[in-house]
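Z., the sequence and structure:
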Amino acid sequence: MTLCLSTERLPSASASSGPVRPSTVAETGLDLLYLADLLSKQLYEHGVLDLHQLSQGSALAGPVVEEICHFLRDERRAEVRGAGEQGVLRFGLTDRGRAAALEALARDGYAGMAPVTLEDYVRQVKTQTMSADGVDRQTVHDAFADTVIAPELLDQLGPALHSGRAMFLYGDPGTGKSFISRRLSRLLPGNVLIPHAILVAGKALRCFDPAVHEVIEEEATSPLARLYLEQGHDPRYVRCRRPCVVTGGELTLNMLEVQYDATTHIHHAPIQLRANNGMLVIDDLGRQRMEPMELFNRWIVPMEEHCDYLTLSNGQHFHVPFDVALVFSTNLEPLSLADPAFLRRIGYKIHFEPLSRDGYLAIWQQECHERELTCDPLVTHFVIDELHARFKVPLLPCHPRDLLGLAQDYLRYRGVVREGLSREALHWAWQNYFGELGEPGRDAS
């Protein structure tokens, strides 16, 4: 599972400032006993921490941390261990506190940033829903200005993303479905707030994932300012770009449910929850270690109701918004994967076809430029008019990149890179790339 981080997006408006940073325990929406256990777990793991470190580690304002620490002292679970830098008090656990921390860790191993309540998370997802921000035709074409793609295909993809409905991309291997589906993340507007964790029935469900969520750096403030001032949004949320999660053949049904680590006693959000307010691409559909209809049956209710039903390890059921642009990409025919009833629920079925001659030439020229290779028209015509035509191989977007890569390997091996591309090098690349599929009458797509 990967995130589209390398794709540059067009500038867009920022998300709203978000929920205000709580200045009291009551404003966090969390129970004082829960927060006391959370700070106890942090003290158990790190030993002695000062107020600033507890504030940083829990994403809670200084006054809130002070209120919790007063409670821990009154309960004889923590004690002052002197003062640190700039006179900030340092705290450590008592024997009673260590015993309480161990009990808390056995119930729930999460000891990170303070979670937000499920109700607050639902409210935030609805506030920053993608349906509130659409994309227009000019924006779509500008975002793909550096990509060789038919305008009419863009005019299918644009409305599909604008609608927020699921889309089904299908066509022969190598027609660019995976590449384009990842590049659709360029069109995701604005940014969103992702919680570090969500509190569900007393259990913290870890949501923020640095492998999935691309953080937008915000203006830093001094340690004391962060400790005592309530500025900006609630830091229990992380400001990120709208997520784009891509998963392929490794996808299993288990990955769509809450993950529980029995060793650490921590619950982890499933991939669709981490993709909320963004995009989820199911690539190579039909290659997973499960029947496609099992996957489709799992998505029917969320797609219909825009709500997903999940379960914790203790059997506690809960539901969250399903605000995800769902993209299915496959080399197989849609009707071979799903029945008409399910396909009806997917608003857009978009077919990817081989390139025109002009499109192939454009990609060939781009690849030559990126590889600093001379683009000789005679050599290019040899590839199209003799190799592709002779062996009846369709013009696919992947071919220029792959053939030029092999040809470049050949030239480097022979020590003749400076002489540039030759028919010999490309014929060698063709034979190695296609093997016996390059023989006349065979399908080499």
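The first helix runs from residue 25 to 28. The two ends are 26 Å apart (CA to CA).

Let me know what you think.
H.
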